[in-house]
Amino acid sequence: MPDKVLVVGLDSAPPRLVFRDFKAELPNISRLMDEGIWGELTSTHPPITIPAWQVMFTGRDPGELGLYGFRHRKGFSYHDGWIASANSIKAPAVWDVAGRAGRRVCLVGVPPSYPVRPVNGRLVSCFITPGVDRPYTYPRALAGEIEALVGEYMFDVPFRTEDRDALLENLYTMTERRFKVMRHLLSGGAWELAAFVEIGTDRIQHAFWKYMDRGHHGYRPGSKYENAIRDYYRYVDGQIGGLLEAAGRDTVVLVVSDHGAKGMRGAFCINEWLIKEGYLVLKEEPIGVSNLDRLAVDWSRTRAWGWGGYYARIFFNLRGREAQGVIEPDDFEREREVLTQKLLSVRDPAGRPMETKVYRPEELYRETNGDPPDLMVYFDDLYWRSAGTVGHGGLYLAGNDTGPDDAVHDYKGIFILWDPRHKQGRRVVGAEIRDVAPTVLELLGLPEPAGMGGRVILPGFVDGGNGLRFEDCCASDADGRVALPDCAEGGKGRGDAGAYYGDATGYDDAESSTGAAGVSCGPAAGGTEREDDGCRQADDGFSAACCSGTVKETGDLAPCAGGGSFAAVAHRQGLCGESRSGDWGDNPSGGVCSPGVSVDNPSGVVCPTDVSAPVLWFTGLSGAGKSTLAQMLADTLRAQGRRVEILDGDEVRAALSPELGYSKNEREEHNRRLIYLAGLLSRHGVTVLVPVISPYRHIRELARDRLPRFVEVWVKCSLNECIRRDPKGLYKKALRGEITDLTGLQDPYEEPGCPEVLVDTERMDVEECIERIMRVI
What we know:
Blueprint: E1 4-10, H1 15-21, H2 27-35, E2 37-42, H3 49-58, H4 62-65, E3 71-73, E4 81-83, H5 94-100, E5 105-108, E6 121-124, E7 137-138, H6 142-150, H7 164-188, E8 193-198, H8 200-212, H9 228-247, E9 251-256, E10 260-263, E11 266-269, H10 270-276, E12 304-307, E13 312-316, H11 332-344, E14 357-359, H12 361-364, E15 375-378, E16 384-387, E17 396-397, E18 407-410, E19 412-418, E20 426-429, H13 436-444, E21 469-472, E22 513-514, E23 520-521, E24 528-532, E25 535-539, E26 558-559, E27 565-566, E28 615-619, H14 626-639, E29 644-646, H15 649-656, H16 664-683, E30 687-691, H17 697-706, E31 710-716, H18 719-725, H19 730-735, E32 757-760, H20 766-774
Parallel strand pairs: 1-8, 1-9, 2-20, 5-6, 5-8, 11-16, 28-30, 28-31, 29-30, 31-32
Antiparallel strand pairs: 2-19, 3-4, 6-7, 9-19, 10-18, 11-17, 12-13, 13-15, 14-15, 20-21, 22-23, 24-25, 26-27
Helix pairs in contact: 7-8, 7-9, 8-9, 14-20, 15-16, 16-17
C-alpha cells in the first residue's frame, strides 16, 4: 500500500491533445505515461463537469446522484430550478471514506465543493464559489494562509468573452495561484489522499479551440492565438512537475479528466424547432432573442419544451404531473417515441443527416433520482449544442447562444496512473470514469462503500470479462515505433492480458520468481504458474505469456520445453511476455506458440491450432497515401517470399458492398466486412494490408479485438495537404457541393489515439515510411 495518492484533474482534457498532439512537449505527463498505465477514460452521460467529477469520485452514476448537469428543474415547475452544489451530493466520495478511516485529505478545486463541508484535512472550494468574500476553505482559517501566499485567490475566469488577451492574462494568473496553493498544501501538511482540479484547461479550449483546429468552421490561419492551447498545456505540465516534487517520490499519481473536448459545429435551437413542430405554443411572437422563461407560453396547448446546453433536455407537459399538463399519462411513452424519431431525423443546415442520439434517463442509469428530464438529446453526437433561446429566426446558430464559444464536450477523457513501485508503460482499454473511485480506494487499502460502482483499473484486477484490457505500451518512440517497457531485473513481469506476475492482486510486494536471465516472472493474477526450463506459462484463463530464459531480439525465438518454441518477442532491449506486433516461430508439431486462443499442450506451452499472419490496417484521410504505401509494402514483402493480399477499401466496396453508401452506419458495415475478410485471409497465413479511411475509432478497435495480429498504421497527413493532392478529385467535388459526406470536410475523422505505427507522409518520403512499418512486422 502506498503512503500517499495524489489525483490531478485537468478539466476537459482530451486524449487527442494530451496523448498525441502535445505529448512531446509535456515532459512530466509523458514520463507518467511512459512509466505508468494510461488510456482513454469514457465519461458519463452527460459528459458535463459537475456530474462527471462526482461520478469519478463517488462511483455512482448521475441518476443515482440526481445530477444531470449544472442546472436542474425543480420538481415539475415550468420555471423554477436549482443549481448543483456540494449540498446536492449525498453519496460518499473517496475522501469521505478515507476521512472516516482516519486518513487525512487535501482537496483543491474539486467540483462541486461549495458550500464548504468539513473534511478530515484541508479543502479549498471550486469554480462555482461566488467569491473570496464567502467561506471557501476548511478549516476557515486556511483562507488567511492562502491570502498571505498568493493574494486574492481565483476560482474561475470569465471565458465567454471577445477580449482574448485579457482572458489569457487572467487564465495564467488563476492557474499560477491555484497550483501555488496546491504545492503549499502538499508540502506543508500531513495527508494521505490529495485531489486537485484545474478548470483552466476547459476554459482555454472553449475560448481558443477555433484558432488551433483547422477543421473548425471558424478557423483562420495565421492567428496569434494559434498556439494558445498548446502553450497553456505546456505551462500546466510544468506546474504538474511542481506538484510531483511537492508530493514526494513515494506518491502514487493519477492524472485524469472528467471528459474531453472537440470543435463545436454550431447550436441547434431546440425550442424554435419544437415551436415549428407544434409541440411548444407561444401566446405571442418574441421580440428579439429571449429565454423561454421570459415569454408567454400557452401551457394549455404545449406538449413539450426544451432546455439548452451541451445537450438538450426535453420535458413533456404531462397531465397530473405538470400544473397545466395536456398529455395523458397513458400516452406518455407513445409521445416520447414519436418525438424521439422526429429528433433523430433532424438534419444539419446543409441537409445532411446528423448523428443525433436520444436517450431516456431510465435506460442510462441504475436509478433516476432528483429531477431528470424526459429525454436527453445529443445533437450530432454532441458536435452541436442545444440553444434554448428563441427569436433567432432560424434553427441553426454558428456559435453558442450564451456567448463566444469554440468547443463542446466529448465522451473521452484521459486516465494516467503512475506508481513508483511498478514501472509499466501500458495502455488500458475500456476504462470508465466511475472506475476511478474504487481504484483510489484500492490504492489506499480501503474497502468500497455499499453502492459504489466501477472496476479497479489495475492490471492485477483484470478478470477477462470485466471489459478492461491492458496492452503493452503504445507510446511511440522517436522513430515512430511502439515503445515497449522492459522487464527489469528483479521486477515483476506481465502477461499479454495485463496481469501482474506476482501476487493475486498485483499490488503488494510479494517476491516473484526469476528466470534464467534474471527476468522476473510469477503467477498471473488469480492463476497459477507452470515452469519448464526457464519458460513460464500463466494459467489464469486469459493470460498466456512466457518469460524466456534468454531475452531475445525482435524476431528471435525463445526455446521452450517439450519440443515446442515460443517467440518471446522483444522490441529493442527485450520484453518479458508477448508483444502484439511481434513474430511467432514454428514448433515441431506444426503449430505456432502464441498467446491467444489455445489448446492444452503436454509441455505446458500454449499453442493455437492455426497460424495467423499480420493484418496491417492503414487508416487516414483520402489522399494521405494509404494505397501507395500498401502497394509498396506488398511488393517488399512478396520479394521476401511472403504471401500478401491488399484489401483496398474502394475495390472491396465495389465488389462486396456496392449497395452501401457513405453514411456512418454504412461505413461501419463496410468496415465490418473488411474485418471479416481480413480475418479469413490472416488465419490462412496471408499477410493482409487494408488501406481504408476507416474514420471511426470504435470500428478500428473492433478490428483490433477480432484480428489476433492487428497492426494499426496511421497514415497521417494534414487536411490542407490532402486537399492539395486530391488524387481522386473528391475534395474538389466536396468543395463544390457535389459530395456532402467526405471524411475530413463534412464528416469527422477520429484520429487514432494509440496506433502501432505512425507515418507522416508530409514529412517522410515513401522509403522512410516503409522502413518504419517493416520494423513491426
